[in-house]
Amino acid sequence: MIEQYTITTTPKYNFPQPTIDTTLPQRFLEQSLHSLKQVQHQPFQLNQQNFQQFQILEQHPSNLRLKRQPITLKPNHQETTIAAVDTSTIKIGETSTGIIIAIRGATTWKQNRNYRYTRLGPFIFHITEENKNELYKTLEKSYFNTLYSSNRHAIPHLMQMPTRLASLLERWLQTMLAKTVTNGLILFDGSLTSGTMDTPIQRMKDILTLARRNKNTVLAFSKMTSLRVNGYLITDQLPKHEAPYLLETTGIQFKSPTIVLGDVRMNAVEKILGNDLYMQGYPETLRLSHILCTFTANEVLAIKHFITRKHGIQIINRPDMHKLLFGPFGKGEFS
Fold it and tell me: Does any domain span residue 64?
């Protein structure tokens, strides 16, 4: 059973416990409307590359080793709350001065054999070189207090803004789960590697501290990896062993400032196996969060019609040069 929790701009959200600070999503909404007002009655070019988020390459650690003896896992059916969070961003189109994007986040939790979810967004932004500094600083400041003021990173490049804004929303959602879930398992999309522009070390440490304070365990899942041992991806070196099992790695040492926060807890993984559905090593709770925040084709069309009717932005279809040159053999620039 899946239950939906509707999100509004009221000061309370339907997380497991609703006593949370909602300043950041309110600022997201305010900045979304403010940025769109700056582009009213202007033409914009539809985006031909519908991607959900920008890819970030992993750094390759040195001295990585993979133990060949699998660690057998046994499902632990002790009743445990499983909660997950994910965010998504998509580029809607371009204007003469910038880009129009949409961001959405979703949290899903399984409790008493029921799945429940909350979605925030979509938040639509018009980002330009002129407004990106104010936009990013306003949203960052609304969540991260003065503790981080001396550690502020440089304002990202225009094309990096969608990922960085989605990351701010994702960290807020992760913080809210860490504050509101007790004695549970919190699942993150991606790794717990910190020290990157999107994940400063202190921000992730604070989230993990909040989670531990409420006796939660945080597990992070990457859908893909570039980690290699002896030149081969670690996922291509799986032994013939009955699932479920874990393979232990040793010698992971990333170059500064990137660090790894934590290890895999066998007991936590066994609780996931006993309390959640999983397929191809991916928990259902996290899979649902990903599905719920991902933009569908119909939603992208609805967003385009909304900004056209609400803000008077004229849509311009740029000719596809691949199809003009190659006819039916032209798949398009980003097909």
Answer: yes
Other Cβ atoms less than 10 A from the Cβ of 30: the count is: 15
Q: What is the pLDDT of residue 21?
A: 65
The answer to whether position 313 is within a domain reads yes
Number of domains in the chain: 1
Q: Give which of 307, 300, 306, 314 is closest to 90, Cα–Cα.
A: 300
Q: How far apart are CA 96 and CA 156, in angstroms?
A: 20
pLDDT single digits (tens) 282-312: 899 999 999 999 999 999 999 988 888 888 8
As a 3-state breakdown, the chain gives helix, strand, coil percent values, each rounded to 5, of 35, 25, 40
Q: How far is the CA of 318 from the CAs of 2, 38, 43, 48, in angstroms?
A: 41, 22, 12, 9
Higher pLDDT, 161 or 229: 161
In a domain? residue 335: no
Structural domain includes residue 334: no
Q: How far apart are the first and last CA of the chain?
A: 37
pLDDT digits (tens, 9 = 90+) for 164-211: 999 999 999 999 999 999 999 999 998 777 766 667 788 888 899 999
Query: Do residues 116 and 288 lie in contact, with contact meaning Cβ atoms separated by under 8 Å?
Result: no
Residue 44 DSSP class: E
